[in-house]
Model the fold of this input.
Amino acid sequence: MADTEDPVLAQLDAIGARYEIVPCDPDLADTAAFCEAYGYAPEDSANAIVVVGKSEPPTYAMCLVLANDRLDVNKVVRKRLGTRKASFASAEATVGLTGMQIGGVTPFGVSTDVPLWIDARVMERERLIIGGGSRDRKLLVPPATLMAHPAAEVVEDLARKAD
Done:
């Protein structure tokens, strides 16, 4: 049973999700460095990216895409947000919205009501490394764990293969 003071682990336990904590050096928390140092393939790693629709007030969503794919912010995300412009949220806005630093952002334990859009290719993986809520850990999860998130929605072509 997880520490109930930890919102990430508390939510995972509350929804009965399967997960494994993978400790990591905070200096190696960024995806490419983590995968290289700990032997995980980038195609088995998914990044949680906060995006913002440029409206008043701004609208936010969290997108989960494979590390070797590119989030389609200018078309798919912008249309889903219903705004004329969209972009990646700043590091400060990400921390403000999630309470997590870049390199540790995960869909779980976020106290604000933000939709979670998961690229369909993420769901094809057998297992995934995702952020763990802080830069000193990652979570190893089956894709079914992501679908246990109350705001999760799978989106076709949310990301495209990186060149």
